[in-house]
Write a structure and sequence with these properties.
Protein name: DUF2884 domain-containing protein
Helix content: 55-70%
InterPro entries: DUF2884
Number of strands: 7
Pfam families: DUF2884
Number of domains: 1
Strand content: 5-15%
Organism: Aliidiomarina haloalkalitolerans
Number of helices: 7
Strand order of the largest sheet: 5-4-3-2-1-7-6
Shape: elongated
Radius of gyration: 24 Å
Length: 273
Amino acid sequence: MNEDIKMISAMVLVSGLSGMPAIEAPSAPVKKSSTNAFHVIDGQSCNMTLDKDLYISPQALTLRDAGAEVIRIHADGQVFVNGAAIDVAEADRAHFVAYKDGLAEQTQFVVQVIDEALEMTNYALTMTFGEMFGKRHRIVRRMDKLTDRLRGDLASIAYEDNGTFVVQGSQLDAFGDRIGETIEEEMEDLITNAKGTMMMMVGRMLLRGQRGIEDFEQRMETMAANLETEMEAWGADIEARSENFCQRLTELRKTEDYLAETYPAFGDYRLLP
């Protein structure tokens, strides 16, 4: 019977997670915290350095460090560094505006993908456990509660406040690390606590004979195949959007290179290494 329990435990992990796209862990920072949300695609670097807090509104994009404003770019191209206006050439105002708008768009996309990754993980695990134990089983409800808690944590880091989208970059990178650790710990605890339920389920299957075990295996294999197809399609969609993200980030990096070289005070606070 122990072998049957091991088989079912392994099936939970394989059927629920085999179709999910791999998520690359953020690379270890040297001096700055880098939110590495995606793989390097076609040689393009997809890193954004979000070790400070961003405040995004139609009127301005503001970068704060420990509550103190360090950069503010207005919709008309005016730029302030550490509270002091810098003299921006008329021709460069459009570059600052494009940089502001592009950075705002891509930052919000990073947050959106993190939220979507939580949704994907929850969907895969609840589908797997739901097929095994029933959609209203306590294990399924526990996974839903975990996802709600993590989404609540994300909502305290990236949120809208009176028309301003706030991203606490100083906390976002640590949150990305915490997602994987939290889910891994939860899975280990779930598998441990589910042994009793699994033993009862195996017992019921054994009472039904070989047919009961074969029916269960077939049901799980069918569910796993369907889930893998869904996850692959979902992952492909995210990858396509991620490629666009990287391309856009490459364009923004060129703009930032120019602005940082032209305005050294601005270059002290680069976000696209």
